[in-house]
Amino acid sequence: MVFAKEDVNYSLYLVTDSTMLPPGTTLYSQVEAGLKNGVTLVQIREKDTETGSFIEEALDVQKICKKYNVPLIINDRIDVAMAIDADGVHVGQQDMPIPMVRKLLGPSKIIGWSVGKPSEVETLAKWGPDMVDYIGVGTLFPTLTKKNPKKSPMGPQGAIAVLDALEEYKASWCRTVGIGGLHPDNIQRVISQCVATNGKRSLDGISLVSDIMAAPDACAATVRLREMIDRTKYQFVDCELNESFPTAVSIKSVISQVSSNRPLVQHVTNKVHQNFGANVTLALGSSPIMSEIQSEVSELARIPNASLLLNTGSVAPIEMLKAAINAYNEVNRPITFDPVGYSATETRLCLNNNLLTYGQFACIKGNSSEILFLAKLNNDKMKGVDAGSGKNDDALLARATQIVAFKYKTIAVCTGEHDFIADGTFGGECKLSSGTAGVTAEGLPCVMIENGSIPIMGDITASGCSLGSTIASFVGGLDPTGNLFDAVVGAVLLYKTAGKLASTRCQGSGSFHVQLIDALYQLFHENKPEKWSASLKKFN
Ligand SMILES: Nc1ncnc2c1ncn2[C@@H]1O[C@H](COP(=O)(O)OP(=O)(O)OP(=O)(O)O)[C@@H](O)[C@H]1O
Ligand SMILES: Cc1ncsc1CCO
Ligand SMILES: [Mg+2]
User: Fold this and answer.
1) Fewer beta carbons within 10 angstroms: which end of the chain, N or C?
2) Is the CB–ligand 1 distance for residue 58 below 6 Å?
3) pTM higher than 0.80, yes or no?
4) Which is the closest atom of ligand 1 to the Cα of 455?
5) Architecture of domain 248-538
6) Does ligand 1 lie within 6 Å of residue 385's CB atom?
7) pLDDT tens-digit map of 221-261
8) Which residues of 44-72 are buried (b: 16+ CB within 10 A; e: fewer)?
9) Coil vs helix vs strand at 412
10) Of the listed 414, 430, 446, 465, which one is catalytic?
11) Helix, strand, coil percent values for the chain (each to nearest 5)
């Protein structure tokens, strides 16, 4: 059978590994369970099997693939693929060069290539449409199936770079599947985040091994995966993600929700911020818990209206941070991420990028230096944790905020004299292939909040960190019908108004600190956003 290449469905691509079969199953039975329940493409990848047995296995699997009308791809062994007339082969960077593979297989077979970086895309684009039909983009996350991984995992941001290269080099024919460490707990996040910067394409499919091959019930496992891939909404927090322009009325409603739900705000934060953050949280009618105990994160995340503030100013062990991200993502509770001093040192850059790869955040907030660096609009390293003193224009800051929101499919906040907030959640939409239907960072909703210059806000330590506490409290306090963007904007607007009020009441930075908590307390409990002094402007 010859498959028309444009008809190949890459959405759920099963790669075999007979070393992980559970007792009572065979390679054949696991593949059949997959095919019956929605696997759309099969690759035989048996690294340690002798040629004779490989061919026997391949012939067996080929029969069943034919029955389900699904193409069969052979990993690496071009000879085996030719011998059994398989539908295609998949080769890695170190395997036989692609032009030779094509010469041997002829034009009609499917050829897949493992790609990890943009320069490899440039190569395949130069070869043109007759060489590589699809690429396996990875390794996305750490995985046990690669025995000697040569590359460190690229994460969604690495996959975005590959998708961008496909667009840049105009390799429109080339399809993509994500590969490496994909499981039900990260598939939707990967589909949602891995979108080219021009919004025109996302991954065409998900490729995986162990979730089907090692499953005691491969039918149920495949049904679950299929359902996950077909779901077009990624509800990573249990509140509304729909686009809206916040108003005094909607912010008033957010505050009422926070008042009655009294969220539990777990702070994993720096030592300087601990006490201030706990008091700010209490001023907002919420309950702080400053905890870095790994064994309790799952329990905390399951408490109604739990919310996590993850601030990397000084850090807990990385395993604890990942466990916390996992625990909150697992139960769709919001995480507010503050990458303090993001670009100050290689250590911070590496740690923050590692965490950004690991989870889905409801909000990413930073000062102007952090957001500009995250957006790759500025390469100047920060001096410590404070924003640089250079003046940036509003348009540049808004753009950086939108880029961060788009990249991480989150609500991004950039602080300074003017605060910017952009919504990159796309209502939680996640789609294979079509990305954001061409919507780019510039098209994202973005607002600006200002209240004149309040330099004293930058003269106390951890004022940005405590805005993080305020956001975490507001997003945690939402009802399921509450709106995430309203909550983040409401928090920033309240904080700016409180800052101004406190600056008129204080005598210096020492009393400003105290006055800021008083002002937050007063404004929150009065709940009259229509009277707040900070202004909210639509920037886009
Ligand atoms: N010149 C200013 N005028 C008005 N508001 C300001 C000014 N500078 C900072 N702010 C406000 O102060 C808060 C902290 O912002 P900043 O950009 O200083 O954060 P940060 O560097 O992360 O703070 P930290 O790391 O000390 O916690 C924000 O709410 C911001 O809006
Ligand atoms: C001063 C300082 N150092 C690490 S975190 C922090 C608080 C302000 O970001
Ligand atoms: Mg900060």
Assistant:
1) N
2) no
3) yes
4) 1
5) 3-Layer(aba) Sandwich (3.40)
6) yes
7) 999 999 999 999 999 999 999 888 999 999 999 999 999 99
8) bbbeebeeeebbebbebbbebbeeeebbb
9) strand
10) 465
11) 45, 15, 40
User: Within 6 Å (CB) of ligand 2, which residues are found?
Assistant: 270, 272-273, 313-314, 340, 385, 461-462, 465
**Is 416 touching ligand 1 by the criterion CB < 6 Å?**
yes
Cβ atoms 218, 34 nearer than 8 A = yes
Structure tokens at 40: 């759309």
- For 145-184, write each residue's pLDDT tens digit: 655 555 678 999 999 999 999 999 999 999 999 999 999 9
Both tokens assigned to 364 = 């990413």
Q: Is 333 in the pocket of ligand 1 (CB under 6 A)?
A: no
CB of 415 closer than 6 angstroms to any ligand 1 atom: yes
CATH for 7-230 is: 3.20.20.70
CA 259 to ligand 3 centroid distance, Å: 26
Atom of ligand 1 nearest to the CA of 415: 17
Note the ligand closest to the C-alpha atom of 465.
1
Rounded Cα distance between 162 and 375, Å, is 17
Q: CA 120, CA 467: separation in Å to the nearest integer? A: 42
The residue whose CA is least distant from atom 9 of ligand 1 is: 416
SS3 category, 142: coil
Q: Please state the ipTM of this predicted complex.
A: 0.97
> Hey, what are 449's tokens?
């909040």
Q: Distance, CA 455 to ligand 1 centroid (Å)? A: 8
- Establish whether 219 is a catalytic residue: no
Atom of ligand 2 nearest to the CA of 385: 9
Domain residue extents for the chain: 7-230, 248-538
Which residue shows structure tokens 């996640």?
Answer: 430
Ligand 1 within 6 A of CB of 420: no
7-230 and 248-538 in the same fold: no
Three-state DSSP at 351 gives helix
